[in-house]
TrEMBL record:
This is Uncharacterized protein. It comes from the Eukaryota. It comes from Nymphaea colorata (pocket water lily). Residues 1-15 have a biased composition (Basic and acidic residues). The lineage of its organism: Eukaryota, Viridiplantae, Streptophyta, Embryophyta, Tracheophyta. Residues 1-21 are annotated as: Disordered.
Length: 21
């Protein structure tokens, strides 16, 4: 089970990718 920090990092990574066209 991912820790909150891992989940936050993954969420941030996904958000960063979403910004890239």
């Amino acid at each position: 089970v991912p820790t909150k920090e891992q989940a936050d990092a993954l969420s941030k990574d996904l958000q960063n990718r979403a910004v890239i066209p």
